[in-house]
Write a structure and sequence with these properties.
Residues 361-475 form the Mannose-6-phosphate isomerase type II C-terminal domain. The chain is an alpha/beta fold. The chain folds into three domains: 2-280, Alpha-Beta Complex (Spore Coat Polysaccharide Biosynthesis Protein SpsA, Chain A); 285-359, no CATH class; 370-474, Sandwich (Jelly Rolls), CATH 2.60.120.10. The protein is built from eleven helices and 31 strands. α3 (91-102) packs across α7 (217-228) and α3 packs across α9 (252-260).
Amino acid sequence: MQSLVPVVLSGGSGTRLWPLSRERYPKQLLSLVNNDTLLQATVRRLDGLTGVQIQAPLIVCNEEYRFVIAEQLRVIGKDCNILLEPAGRNTAPALTLAALAAIRNAADPVLLVMPSDHVIVDNSAFQACVRKGMGLAEEGAVITFGITPDAPETGYGYIQSGKAMAAEGTFRIARFVEKPDLATAQAYLDDGSYLWNSGIFMMRASVWLSAIEHCHPDILVACRAAWDQGSVDGDFLRVDKTAFMLCPNDSIDYAVMEKLAENRSELPAGVVIPLSVGWSDVGAWDSLWQVLPKDPSGNVTRGDVLLHECQNTLVISENRLVACVGVDDLAVIETPDAILVAHKDRTQDVKKIVDTLRQSGRAEVLLHRKIYRPWGWYDAVDAGERFQVKRIVVKPGAALSLQMHHHRAEHWVVVRGTAKVTRDESSYLVSENESTYIPLGIRHRLENPGRLPLEMIEVQSGSYLGEDDIVRFEDKYGRNER
């Protein structure tokens, strides 16, 4: 039976979906369409595929997201390999690392490479196209999947399909073209041979390694050195940071795929398979509005929202009541620490707001108020001069690091569950409606010994309350940050 390894690339930041998507909690980790996050939906995309032996998916991600991704995979019961990039170097190095990981046990599976932040509505049709591509990939072809366009879209690159191949619905790649202007996009739509570039690929691991060696050998050299000097860290595959930082930055398209259209003899055949599966890259708020169910007036709402005489408007509320009156074609996104109001025709420009926030050093570009950690999460609910209040939830069996603060003391009040508190040499339990005090300079640890989540309120007081005021003595997760 044919062997297939799903490779999920999870390195994007999704800045045009700010304020829900942040640099350290990007859109693939969000539940935008249904209860699954975009990452979870991608990992599930091949569930039920028959006639193919599906191996454990391989997730390639930034170190920053590793614990959140591991937890999201645990929630849906997926046993995946998580490969950590020390820094972003675009998709070609990410796929090269994935291919090296795939052949590490003398195997040579077919890799199905998928971005983690796309939406596909018709999984059955997608799986049918994957089956169609498997035979060609086994024979040595490099396959990309092109989306059958339904509009003159200027936000996507295009692939022109060339000569039809023996397998029905498969074509040689004629050429790749950059994002067009509106008139050119309309001409592509009228022509009928042009497809949107989906960023989904399929090939054998060895075929990709051979192709990248021919087209961009410095990428392979750097990735191989990083892989060979890497290590296994619990649930994570790590590569050597120093070696990987020497790797050039390039995409799969630029590094290899565009060269396949030249039909060079030393390169594998480039094949495109058209997809009509209800695809979206959910690249901006107008794209999300397009794929979500709408009321009779074309509105999409989520959360505590009231509308009066509104049309074609997207409103998402995370934290409080949002009311809109007499507005059309808006995107209104509310989070605990930021609100976005934009015309749907201008949602691509949200990136400019993010750039301004970044230049100003604003934390809202990086983090939500609610911060996820491997032991659970905390929400900074209030702050003032010399104090800060957090709501903290610790997962069953989890523990914060053994640590100490130079500049702050902490008061802990348990509101649900039971806490095990270590304070210097003593340990004791704190139950619901009880509290304890951690003076500054005291070594301490918080643990949840129970089977239910531990919820507590932490009041910090002191001259400095930054997250970097932590001296860590011991941490089961091997972190350098809280």
